[in-house]
Structure to design on (668 residues):
């Protein structure tokens, strides 16, 4: 079942181990067999920790390992989770050391922006100077690089960063007052715990004897330090990854972690998986040729015994012709072969590229899905129900409470809510405390608002006790009926079909509770909220559902990582698109290297057929502008001795208005 390299990785059971797993080389199989082999060798399953990045990958690992090892007599099993799930469990046990309640709330993007808006108002920053969204994006970048609020002043890039750094400190204090953390804090606070409380690190590291990390090339600085801290006591650390597929530098991932693994662990063993079981030899030849131009990498070369046709390069007059030609080819393949729509993928680099392809796919009646739409968790009705549950669990969570206190309308008017909020801020107390304990203040409200607020508090107390002590789908559904949430949907959305769709989303929350309890029989309201905050397995990802349809997939290179398709079209293979304009204009080579890795990821998604397309001109701001072929086309085809390749690499301008130079390029 295993080739020689896979077998070597599986049988290396102790000490530091780096498994360099090229695209399509059976990485998941190796991880599964290695965990099973550890258990067969006598390791207590509960002393094994495997960590990955996505819920999908964690689920797949759990399922495969479960099938391989079966159910042990003791009922023990390995702990398999994402980094964020692991850290939430650690924080639930230990965060009180940092002054947070163990029942902290986890804020999503909307909650974060709500807090940020108040902070920016407090320091008198206008929306025109800095939006809450821009503020959150900037501090998220800092956090993903391990930069805390206290360190932000040392990482300023311009004058606006100074304002953000000041607001960052206030934002963190506000979260702590609210008993909340945001998604990025989950890692940073775990790191703070390990650094500030050595006894906590000893306790948490002592839970495991073996640590396995998947997709190690995607670790950011916080994840790297957390892994190192957990692994140092036993040194049984196995990391699996591929530096050639490190494409997340923009969100803090540092490819140097996998490149320097042997420096961190000098006695580490290295195993290279190079036998590819996905693509044909001609496709892999292009992948190997492209990626060899990245010099800062672990040397490896994918190989296969599978024969096939060479990839194609398709040059088109403009972007519209590119879309028509690609879709016509797909339509023809559907009509003349056994191919189905789900066998095809169109990969793009920038968000504006899909428009022309969507129009053409509709015109030629080819079913498709565009991966990257609104998240299930961003829908208003889902956020409302989740906010209710957060407030039931921890009513001091002002952000959640304010979202639902008058949803549906229950007679607590905006003026009263504003008055209550201002009083809570002036007193330095949570809004809930004002509602239930500050009777003198509540007497200052009009009788209707006062009575409505009293009924609301009574209802929340009653249902809080019910759902805390007996969290079940039935109790959750009864609660949703009790608050009459359907009234909100019917009022906001006059269209009957839209109403039904929105109401079905509410039903999906109840279904998720059922799935969660099936998987965690002793689960609680708190556990369910953690699961949903981390995009847990109980909500099938909208993107996964899309990709499960029998439709052509339109998706970015980042979204395509980990997937495979029988036929792949990589569109827009031009300088300024791939590699992206930002990387070309950057001072160092690292950014272009990451773009080259994106190209490599795109090529290795294809199983049987690969087509790379480019337009000779593109319409920008109403004018046709000539393009230059992507340098990666020259590299993939072994034409780097072409003088044009050197000109492009050395910065020949692209995007000029169409002129005589454009005519000459048509001959290429």
């Amino acid at each position: 079942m295993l080739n020689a390299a896979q077998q070597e990785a599986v049988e290396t059971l102790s000490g530091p181990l780096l498994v360099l797993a090229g695209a399509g080389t059976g990485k998941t199989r190796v991880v599964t067999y290695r965990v099973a082999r550890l258990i067969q060798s006598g390791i207590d399953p509960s002393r094994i920790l495997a960590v990955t990045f996505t819920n999908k990958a964690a689920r797949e690992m759990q399922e495969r390992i479960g099938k391989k090892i079966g159910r042990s007599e003791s009922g023990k099993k390995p702990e398999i989770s994402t980094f964020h799930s692991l850290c939430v469990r650690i924080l639930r046990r230990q965060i009180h050391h940092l002054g947070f309640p163990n029942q902290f709330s986890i804020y999503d993007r909307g909650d974060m922006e709500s807090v940020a808006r108040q902070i920016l108002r407090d320091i008198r920053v206008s929306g025109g100077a800095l939006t809450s969204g821009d503020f959150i994006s900037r501090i998220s970048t800092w956090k993903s690089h391990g930069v805390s609020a206290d360190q932000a002043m040392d990482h300023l890039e311009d004058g606006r960063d100074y304002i953000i750094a000041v607001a960052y400190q206030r934002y963190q204090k506000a979260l702590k007052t609210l008993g909340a953390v945001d998604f990025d804090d989950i890692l940073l606070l775990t790191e703070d715990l390990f650094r500030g409380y050595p006894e906590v690190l000893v306790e948490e590291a002592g839970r495991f004897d073996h640590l396995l990390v998947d997709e190690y090339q995607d670790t950011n600085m916080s994840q790297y330090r957390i892994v190192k801290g957990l692994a140092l006591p036993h040194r049984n650390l196995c990391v699996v990854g591929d530096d050639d597929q490190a494409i997340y530098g923009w969100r803090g991932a540092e490819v140097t972690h996998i490149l320097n693994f042997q420096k961190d662990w000098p006695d580490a063993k290295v195993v290279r998986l190079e036998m590819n079981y996905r693509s044909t030899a001609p496709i892999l030849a292009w992948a190997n040729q492209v990626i060899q131009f990245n010099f800062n990498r672990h040397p490896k070369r994918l190989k296969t015994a599978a024969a096939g046709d060479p990839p194609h390069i398709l040059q088109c007059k403009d972007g519209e012709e590119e879309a028509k030609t690609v879709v016509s080819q797909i339509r023809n393949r559907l009509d003349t072969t056994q191919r189905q729509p789900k066998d095809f993928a169109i990969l793009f680099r920038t968000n504006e590229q899909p428009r022309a392809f969507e129009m053409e796919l509709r015109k030629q009646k080819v079913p498709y899905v565009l991966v990257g739409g609104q998240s299930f968790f961003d829908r208003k009705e889902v956020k409302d129900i989740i906010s209710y549950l957060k407030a039931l669990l921890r009513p001091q969570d002002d952000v959640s409470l304010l979202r639902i206190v008058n949803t549906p309308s229950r007679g607590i008017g905006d003026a009263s809510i504003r008055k209550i909020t201002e009083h809570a801020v002036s007193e330095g107390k949570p809004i809930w405390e004002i509602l239930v304990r500050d009777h003198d203040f509540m007497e200052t409200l009009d009788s209707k608002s006062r009575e409505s607020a009293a009924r609301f508090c009574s209802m929340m107390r009653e249902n809080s006790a019910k759902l805390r002590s007996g969290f079940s789908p039935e109790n959750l559904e009864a609660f949703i009926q009790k608050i009459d949430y359907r009234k909100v949907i019917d009022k906001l959305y006059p269209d009957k079909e839209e109403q039904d769709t929105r109401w079905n989303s509410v039903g999906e929350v109840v279904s998720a509770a059922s799935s969660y309890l099936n998987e965690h029989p002793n689960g609680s309201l708190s556990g369910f909220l953690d699961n949903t905050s981390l995009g847990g397995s109980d909500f099938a990802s909208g993107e996964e559902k899309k990709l499960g349809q029998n439709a052509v997939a339109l998706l970015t290179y980042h979204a395509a990582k980990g997937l495979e398709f029988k036929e792949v079209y990589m569109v827009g293979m031009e300088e300024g698109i791939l590699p992206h304009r930002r990387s070309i204009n950057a001072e160092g080579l690292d950014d272009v290297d990451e773009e080259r890795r994106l190209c490599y990821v795109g090529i290795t998604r294809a199983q049987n057929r690969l087509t790379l397309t480019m337009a000779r001109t593109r319409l920008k701001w109403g004018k046709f502008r000539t393009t230059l072929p992507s340098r990666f086309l020259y590299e993939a085809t072994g034409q780097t001795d072409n003088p044009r390749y050197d000109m492009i690499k050395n910065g020949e301008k692209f995007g000029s208005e169409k002129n005589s130079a454009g005519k000459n390029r048509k001959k290429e």
